[in-house]
């Protein structure tokens, strides 16, 4: 498949595919095929792997490490990376939960009416 087909099948744009290639996450196929460069099922699998890892919150550098770990089957390091990512996600969840609670209180206080500025608007001043 051509790069546009790969991008479409992977749910990304062509520039994203090129960006991943520049970062070393996807290989650049040789251009000696009739009609230029062509991508195969392995390229699509790798593209989907990168997107899934991003969805899990891994950075591109971490994804590159995961790809290397896949070659060596270094389970302890992969497990450590997953645990680190889980801890980071837990911290984000706690932060978002606190922000939600704070904003909910401000919205309730604003809904009560009263004198002075809206608590929501005053909170960000």
TrEMBL record:
Q: Which InterPro entries does the annotation name? A: DNA-bd_dom_put_sf (IPR009061), MerR-type_HTH_dom (IPR000551), MerR_fam (IPR047057)
Coiled-coil annotation: which residues? 79-106
Ordered alphabetically, the record's keywords are: Coiled coil, DNA-binding, Repressor, Transcription, Transcription regulation
Keyword Transport part of the UniProt annotation = no
Please give the name of this protein.
MerR family transcriptional regulator
- Indicate yes or no for the key word Cell wall biogenesis/degradation: no
Q: Where is the HTH merR-type domain?
A: 1-69
Which domain of life does this protein belong to? Bacteria
Specify the species.
Answer: Pelagerythrobacter aerophilus
SUPFAM superfamilies given in the database record: Putative DNA-binding domain
PANTHER family given in the database record: MERR-FAMILY TRANSCRIPTIONAL REGULATOR, REDOX-CYCLING DRUG-SENSING TRANSCRIPTIONAL ACTIVATOR SOXR
The family database entries (Gene3D superfamilies) matched by this protein are listed as:
1.10.1660.10
One MF term in the entry's GO annotations:
DNA-binding transcription factor activity
Pfam families to which the protein is assigned, alphabetical: MerR_1
Taxonomic classification? Bacteria, Pseudomonadati, Pseudomonadota, Alphaproteobacteria, Sphingomonadales
């Amino acid at each position: 498949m051509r790069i546009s087909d790969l991008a479409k099948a992977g749910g990304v744009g062509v520039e994203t595919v090129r960006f991943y290639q520049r970062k070393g996450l996807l290989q650049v196929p040789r251009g000696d095929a009739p009609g230029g460069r062509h991508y195969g099922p392995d390229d699509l699998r790798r593209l989907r792997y990168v997107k899934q890892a991003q969805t899990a919150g891994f950075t591109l550098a971490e994804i590159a490490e995961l790809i290397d770990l896949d070659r060596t089957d270094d389970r302890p390091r992969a497990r450590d990376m997953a645990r680190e990512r889980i801890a980071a996600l837990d911290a984000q969840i706690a932060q978002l939960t606190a922000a939600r609670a704070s904003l909910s209180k401000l919205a309730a206080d604003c809904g009560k009416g009263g004198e002075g500025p809206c608590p929501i608007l005053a909170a960000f001043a």
